[in-house]
């Protein structure tokens, strides 16, 4: 079976290598969580349920994975990538993010999508029982295929969805060469 028919291009091959230590990024695909982080979060959730059953009304521990996610430390927008004969289309979910807080940068054949979902002013008098919304900086790094026309990339932002269209250019056909076989006497 030819694996290239299933996944012809590894769009995320540079994402981990360009990950900087000062911007935490969840390095996994949507819906996946590192096993140790998943175990830690589940244990914390079990203890929270246990303590809640005894009437605890304290806010959650600020260093649990679920609370860190709520503060934006694990924020990573979902990305859909599609292709046609003429173009690639990348769709990035960014609900609650203002257009001026999203930045695209193209260096060589690597497209970096950066942004920040800023915390809205909340009442300081309110006592929160649970915070599930995520805030903070995010980044996705995409390795573009060699047939991408990097000079004509278009980006549009509407209703919390960033759509990036990358036209495809025709690659030069490799020229075959017939090699004569000499007869050795």
Automatic annotation (TrEMBL):
Gene3D superfamilies: 2.60.40.790. Pfam families: HSP20. Residues 70-184 form the SHSP domain. Belongs to the small heat shock protein (HSP20) family. This is HSP20 family protein.
């Amino acid at each position: 079976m030819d694996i290239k028919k299933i996944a012809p291009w590894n769009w995320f091959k540079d994402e981990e290598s360009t990950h900087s230590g000062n911007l935490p990024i969840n390095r996994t695909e949507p819906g996946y969580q590192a096993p140790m982080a998943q175990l830690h979060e589940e244990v914390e959730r079990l203890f929270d349920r246990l303590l809640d059953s005894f009437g605890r009304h304290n806010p959650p521990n600020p260093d649990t994975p679920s609370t860190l996610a709520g503060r934006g430390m694990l924020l990573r927008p979902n990305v859909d990538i599609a292709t046609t004969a003429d173009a690639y289309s990348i769709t990035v979910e960014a609900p609650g993010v203002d257009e001026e807080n999203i930045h695209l940068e193209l260096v060589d054949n690597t497209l970096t999508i950066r942004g920040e979902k800023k915390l809205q002013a909340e009442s300081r008098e309110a006592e929160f029982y649970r915070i599930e919304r995520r805030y903070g900086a995010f980044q996705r790094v995409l390795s573009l295929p060699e047939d991408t026309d990097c000079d004509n990339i278009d980006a549009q932002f509407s209703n919390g969805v960033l759509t990036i269209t990358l036209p495809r250019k025709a690659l030069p056909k490799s020229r075959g060469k017939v090699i004569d076989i000499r007869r050795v006497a």
